[in-house]
Amino acid sequence: MNLRPGGKQALMRDGWFMHDGCKVTQLMVFASDHAEFPGMAKGMKQVLIEWGLWADGLLMKCCDSCDCDALACCATCVLELQPDFQSQKSLIQEVIEAQGHLCIFLPKFHCELNFIEFFWGTVKKYLQEHCDYTFDTLKQNLPKALASVQLHTIRKWEHRMYCWMDAYRDGLTAKDAQMKVKQFRSKQYISHCYVPEALAHQFDQ
């Protein structure tokens, strides 16, 4: 959202706020017959004015390290503290859950906790081994590559991820956690894309 109305900003769905114990719908877009901004986004300032939360001199964002727990730090923080903003799920989460699936967000920059990375690595390896450097062949082989990864292999990657999670829960750093995972895997487990059957049974137990 911009601080001011109109301009290049998303047309957001209606929000809500509590007034005298009742939930009141908050329109995020001006009416189509509005004199100055017909059908345009209201912007942060107008929304906060209608909520009774606007204060003179309030900036859109005070700085990159602003105190998001402060009640009047900046317009961005004030909005983020409102219950309708806090309860709003992301679009990708809404789409996934609408299909009956769970949407689980994993930590950024921790591929060891995201075993889909091993899936994509295996798919790319399949495509490299069945490549004639034409786009038509790539399109034909992609569904085969996706189907080539067995479910039991994916489960083994998942088990390995749990081992990393346990190490982090014990308070280990990334380096120490890696050592613990390696010890668990044993010397025979040398590939990050393959888990031996014996080790998989250890995980299952």
Describe the structure.
- InterPro entries: RNaseH_sf.
- This is Tc1-like transposase DDE domain-containing protein.
- One of its GO terms (molecular function) is nucleic acid binding.
- With 205 residues, this protein is mainly α.
- The protein folds into 2 domains: 15-90, no CATH class; 111-204, no CATH class.
- It has helices at residues 43-51, 75-80, 83-87, 91-98, 116-129, 135-147, 151-169, 174-185, 197-204, and strands at 15-19, 22-26.
- A hairpin with a 2-residue loop joins β1 (15-19) and β2 (22-26).
- α5 packs across α6 and α7 crosses α8 (174-185).
- It is elongated.
- The termini are far apart.
- 9% of the residues are buried.
Strand order of the largest sheet: 1-2
The total beta strand count reads 2
Tell the overall outline: elongated
SSE pattern: EEHHHHHHHHH
Number of helices: 9
Q: Could you report the average pLDDT, rounded to the nearest whole number? A: 84
The rounded distance between the terminal residues' Cα atoms is: 51 Å
Estimate the strand proportion: under 5%
Please state the structural category.
Answer: mainly alpha
Please tell me the total number of domains: 2
Biggest beta sheet summary: 2 strands, antiparallel
Radius of gyration: 25 Å
Helix fraction bin: 40-55%
Spans of at least 5 consecutive residues with low confidence: 186-190
